[in-house]
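Q: For a teaching handout, I want to show students what a protein-ligand complex looks like in token form. Below are the inputs, and the small molecule is adenosine-5'-diphosphate. Please produce the holo structure.
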Amino acid sequence: MATNEQALAALNAVAGPDGRTPLPQSGALSGLSIHDDKIYLSLSVSPDQAKASEPMRLAAEQALKALPGVTAAFVALTAERPPQPEKPAPAPVAQGPGLDKVKKIIAVASGKGGVGKSTTAANLAVALAALGEKVGLLDADIFGPSLPLLFGLSGKPKFSGEGKLLEPFVKYGVKLMSIGFLIPEDQAVVWRGALVMTAVKQLLRDVNWGDLDILVVDMPPGTGDVQLTMAQNTSLAGAVIVSTPQDMALIDARRGIAMFNQVKTPVLGLFENMSYFLCPHCGGRTEIFAHGGAKDEAEKHGVRFLGAAPLDIQIRETSDSGAPIAAVAPDSPQAKSYFDLARAVREELTKQARRAPVFSVG
Ligand code: ADP
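A: Here is the structure, written as tokens, with adenosine-5'-diphosphate included.
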């Protein structure tokens, strides 16, 4: 049977949507699974790129089929950016009983999908909890809720005592809630703006978060109206922007910084994901891209560089098996990236608290 690593290596020979970046680093790779002798791969492209992406899809299929032991490869194109839902009326999120004891809410955001935002949010939450903070993680990524997969959870959340509040799941010391528990995955993208806002408000307000130091919100990718409205209507203490080192992702990250500036949410910093390649065999480090792109970009915008995580098979495998690396291998070099991130986020939040009471909940 072929392995994920072999599949990714084969896909390195195929150019992504921009015609030059290898597929695994292009951000278009949104799913890979291997079952016996068959490989299933999904590639996210924007709807207007769907037709032009057909040669890329075929090339990926051929590359996978050529692997020893593989009899069939199925590569599907999925429209990553659905049409932006209607602009909802900007109604402020009422502070509800579930948020009474939440001290700070921070957003983890990215300019585009597939850069590892959810993986970062999950590991950040786990690392913060391991450092002694009381932490919640809310997956508000309506276009692709991934918390259930990242933490290996399924089923519907229960209602607490009086039946008014949803009980979060708890794993690795983190209280967890996802929009994915409330709506069938395939329906998320057709939701209209107002409905989306209602659901997000409900998740913020009607979940029994209890006593939390930090609630991490995994935002939907992009900087469209939905994201802007969410940022506007959520009482955020700050935002972490996740980007890969490629130029295109950095341009999108820049838009993310601008969006949070627009709604006067402090940007806590920029985190670089898939920054360098960590070889699972020799442990060697390869700088695939011009390493340091996010660092330069952060400096240019006067925001803090929060560190970097490698492109690494273990990060991917632990994520896909419902056990974030910061939880299952906290002493690994990969997990260190997330612990460093958690410490940097904590520091930034403390600085902010000293600067001005920009934010309060409850
Ligand atoms: P986003 O939330 O930005 O869409 P995800 O966190 O869902 O991105 O990551 C997309 C895919 O990339 C997932 O399959 C995830 O396991 C993988 N991935 C994320 N970060 C890394 C990394 N540092 N190394 C290897 N794979 C990664």
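A: Two things your students might notice: Residues 110, 113-119, 144, 146, 221, 273-274, 309-312, 315-316, 319-320 surround adenosine-5'-diphosphate (CB under 6 Å). The chain has 13 helices and 13 strands.
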